[in-house]
Specification:
Elements (H helix, E strand, L loop, with lengths): L1 H17 L8 E5 L4 E2 L2 E2 L6 E4 L4 E5 L2 H5 L4 H19 L1 H7 L5 H30 L3 H13 L2 H4 L8 H14 L17
Length: 194
């Protein structure tokens, strides 16, 4: 996981520098049991969280991660939380916070746009690094399937992160393009942000 953090720092610092944006590394906190993160108790299905005010990633190290810390799903969770850091540094989170919201449905739609963009950005990073990790197509499909199974509909939770279909679509898009430019969920039609 720490080796992966080094790769994320190197890759995203170059991308942000290319865009003329400043870069700072996030702090990272690993936890082994549910605890308060960003002022709230970690939810049942939360494997990671990004606290934007502290610029801190918190990653749950569970028995699956201990058994296989380089598993593509574990690496994707870390890359997803790191993508929130990138959104923060690039001003996406500030713009998100300023978006006018009149209803709860609008607030949830905006949150899905933020989360699906993080899914796509994580997959764009992963797509570029995939060959060097020596994982095959089967592992990539397993990661897409994990995204599908972690949708709001599959977990029966409030529509805050995207349906399984939407999550899988944006992960595939990130993989396929291996570029952050493919991850503009903010202009995508509502049907792609379900």
């Amino acid at each position: 996981m720490t080796a992966m953090l080094g790769c994320l720092n190197t890759s995203w610092s170059a991308q942000l520098r290319k865009a003329g944006l400043p870069f700072t590394k996030p702090t990272v906190r690993f936890i082994t049991k549910p605890t308060r993160v960003c002022g709230a108790k970690r939810g049942k299905y939360v494997l990671g969280r990004y606290c934007h005010n502290r610029r801190q990633l918190t990653i749950l190290i569970d028995k699956h991660m201990v058994a296989d810390p380089a598993h593509p799903v574990a690496l994707h969770v870390l890359a997803h939380e790191y993508a929130h850091h990138v959104q923060n540094l690039a001003g996406v989170m500030s713009a998100y916070a300023r978006r006018p919201v009149r209803t709860k449905a609008q607030a949830l739609m905006n949150n899905r746009r933020l989360e699906l963009q993080a899914d796509c950005l994580a997959a764009a990073f992963t797509g570029r690094a995939w060959a060097s990790w020596e994982y095959g197509a089967e592992a990539k499909e397993a990661l897409v399937d994990f995204s599908r199974r972690s949708g709001d509909d599959a977990l029966k939770r409030e529509r805050s992160h995207g349906s399984g279909k939407s999550r899988a679509t944006w992960v595939r898009r990130g993989f396929g393009n291996a570029s952050p430019g493919a991850c503009n969920t903010w202009t995508a039609p509502a049907s792609r942000i379900a």
